[in-house]
Amino acid sequence: MASVALVQSVRDSATACKNWFASLSGKRKGRKLGPPRFKSRKDNRQAIRLTRNGFSIRRNRKLYIAKIGELKVAWSRDLPSVPSSVTIIKDSAGRSFASFVVEVDQAPLAEVDVEVGIDLGLATFAVFSDGRVVESPRFLRRAERTLRKAQQNLSRKEKGSRNRAKARWKVARAHARVADSRRNFVHQQSTAIIRDNHAVYVEDLV
Questions:
Q1: In 97-199, which ranges are continuous DSSP H helix?
Q2: Is the pLDDT of residue 206 over 70?
Q3: What pTM value is reported for the model?
Q4: Based on the number of CB atoms within 10 Å of its own CB, is 104 exposed (0-12), middle (13-18) or buried (19 or more)?
Q5: Mean pLDDT score, 92-113
Q6: CA 17, CA 170: separation in Å to the nearest integer?
Q7: Distances (CA, A) of 82 to 52, 79, 99, 180
Q8: SS3 of 157, please?
Q9: Distance (Å, rounded) from C-alpha 83 to C-alpha 87?
Q10: List of residues 6+ apart from 6 with CB closer than 8 A
């Protein structure tokens, strides 16, 4: 592992301890913070953070990581500026992601003179005051068969075996696909609502 990742881990730990002590003494505003939780090999989510000294983006659009080499990246978008740091994340489903810190020019959205009220429900995702209805995609319901088969396959494997580990990855990937689909749908809907309306009123049952 590159020494940059170890240095960043130490700095993050120092910042976490400092915030915890400040929270205990009352110097830090907001909710009370608990003691920092240190990383473990048994964590389902693993992550390292690298500064400019530990990574670079090559001309062939591959990501170079110190002590590891070049990594092929499926870019979701072009970076607007030179990144100052990158976080390499491995989630519980065994997928790896690269999250970059970049500077972005903030541009205000186009002004609109439209207001809308939203009623969020269970049978439907949302009902708008202008009559529009957004149906709930029911991602989990559509994936129930795949999840059930993966879970049954996992239950048949011997504990501690390699086959059980492989089956566990399949279950985690199936759940990750559902979570990604739900998150993408919510982001698309919320972005469209913000761009098309000047004010949004959400039903409050309190």
A1: 139-142, 144-155, 162-196
A2: no
A3: 0.76
A4: exposed
A5: 88
A6: 37
A7: 10, 7, 13, 27
A8: coil
A9: 11
A10: none
